[in-house]
Design goal:
- The structure is a homodimer.
- The first copy, chain A, is of the alpha/beta class.
- Chain A is built from 11 helices and 6 strands.
- Chain A has a 6-stranded parallel β-sheet, sandwiched between helices.
- In chain A, α1 crosses α2 and α2 crosses α4.
- At the A-B interface, α7 and β3 of A face α7 and β3 of B.
């Protein structure tokens, strides 16, 4: 077996890997939907719809057809689209309510093992975000949830969205490490596959509750990742021994 | 007296304000100069010469005559120039020694009050770097010195060097705050003056030992800053009460 390159830094996907976006968004959306008299809409389905809806907008930016805009902006557009889909005119919500709902993405809870796992991993490796989330979003989330990042990197810093190869390569470059010295930690096979294609090492974290127990869209795309664990504390067991 | 805008985040100059670059560089350069048989060169004067020497290169980038390059690169060029000034051919130093010397900037010690002050300020405000230092430099320094930044912003993230107005404005934008809601904390009147001109609030930290007890180049450029303290713990006393 060939010797693995020594890992010098860990970059983390965040939504789904470190925090539970579905429960957090449902928690934020529930009371708003209730105030609108729309308790018929399941807040968890609303969260799923929101997450799904900004993928086409991300693709517009990735393709270069649209200049870079931050995720908060794409979240807002996707929310307005989702509201219209449910026959709710976004203009009937006041601006504070809209912004507060968009900021539900800033207030997501970590999975139970995340803070302990990150704290232990940080003793050995620099730990940075490599998320499509913007800086203010990641910073608000980290302060609220006590995520001890060494740096917030990712889309807004490199002005490019995953899974384009340059998003991974720019992060390695900013950390002054070779791509093979950087390990992406993610719950999504698609993200890991793109990172591997760019030359990074890969650590898969199984998060069976990300979609409320239903399989992830890319559940069948697994590969033989360098690491495969079911929590960040287990990753710390493997990487910090 | 007009009501001040509420501060929502603190951005810090780092070299001189949070860490003691002169002692750290002298500590790194001393043994190298000794090995070269050049104990006649005072390591502190060497540090002063190095710091002074990259200002023209910074100006080349600020003016747009040269595309953005990170500070590690400018540090290297300035070092080679300084060595030649002392009749030392940079090629006589092996690459590891050169890189290690450049990385002395990654291993600077904080002033005695910095970690405690930042830790207390962080309980109330997001604290970010707004330094001309690059990301890997700031990250290495923070891990070694236990500086608890919420995010590493500044030159490499905004692709622009202080004191250009956009360096301050881009930082406010990335934090999703208005310029007047962001306070720059710095030991240099010139930096603070540029931040104020861009609309930021300002906190001056007196660091009489930055130049080994001699006055700073901009010592006479003081203004009536919003805050003026002699340590980051004193700033925490003022801002966290």
């Amino acid at each position: 077996m060939p010797q693995r390159t020594r890992i010098k830094a860990l970059a983390f996907d965040v939504f789904g890997t470190v925090v539970d976006w579905r429960s957090g968004i449902a928690r934020g959306a529930g009371p708003v939907l209730a105030r609108l008299g729309r308790s018929d809409i399941d807040p968890h389905a609303f969260a799923d719809g929101w997450r799904r809806r900004y993928q086409p907008a991300l693709e517009e930016v990735r393709s270069g057809r649209r200049p870079f805009v931050i995720l908060d902006t794409l979240h807002r557009e996707a929310l307005e689209d989702l509201l219209r889909h449910h026959a709710i005119d976004p203009a009937t919500l006041d601006e504070d309510t809209l912004v507060d709902l968009i900021h539900a993405w800033h207030r997501l809870d970590p999975w139970p093992d995340s803070v302990d796992g990150l704290t232990r991993l940080k003793t050995r490796y620099p730990i940075v975000t490599l998320s499509n989330g913007n800086i203010a979003l990641m910073l608000d989330m980290a302060r609220r949830a006590h995520l001890p990042w060494d740096a917030i990197l990712g889309a807004e810093v490199s002005r490019i969205y995953k899974p384009l190869p340059e998003s991974y390569l720019a992060t390695a470059r900013m950390l002054a490490v070779e791509p093979a010295e950087l390990c992406l930690v993610a719950a999504h096979h698609s993200d890991l596959a793109a990172a591997r294609a760019a030359g990074l090492q890969t650590a898969y974290v199984d998060r069976p509750l990300e979609y409320g127990g239903r399989p992830a869209p890319d559940a069948d795309d697994g590969q033989d990742w360098e690491f495969s664990v079911d929590s960040l504390t287990r990753l710390a067991d493997e990487l910090c021994r």
